[in-house]
Amino acid sequence: AKTEVCETGLWRYSRHPNYFFEWMFWCCWFLFAASPSIVSWLSLLAPLLMYWLLVHVSGIPPLEDHMLRSRGQKFRALQQRVNAFFPGPRRQDIHPEGELK
């Protein structure tokens, strides 16, 4: 439903697993470009730029603003329980309704 938040599968561990795995894809370009040449180290700029764009500019910030407007307190509670970008353990001290246990 349009008022619910997803907490199943990968979304249980990250609010934006799609962005995380897209960034992982960009990290692989460095592995493909790696060589003894100093120029190959410039390929590190791609994952750094993508991380910055996804986390601070065009990915997470506008989507989270939209989710807060459309899902309200349910999404705010999810923000307190689940990491935004890097998958990780959930913080269990918050109920889905946003109240402390």
Automatic annotation (TrEMBL):
<keyword id="KW-0472">Membrane</keyword>
<keyword id="KW-0812">Transmembrane</keyword>
<protein>
    <submittedName>
        <fullName>Steroid 5-alpha reductase family enzyme</fullName>
    </submittedName>
</protein>
<keyword id="KW-1133">Transmembrane helix</keyword>
<feature type="transmembrane region" description="Helical">
    <location>
        <begin position="23"/>
        <end position="54"/>
    </location>
</feature>
<dbReference type="Pfam" id="PF06966">
    <property type="entry name" value="DUF1295"/>
</dbReference>
<dbReference type="InterPro" id="IPR010721">
    <property type="entry name" value="UstE-like"/>
</dbReference>
<dbReference type="GO" id="GO:0016020">
    <property type="term" value="C:membrane"/>
</dbReference>
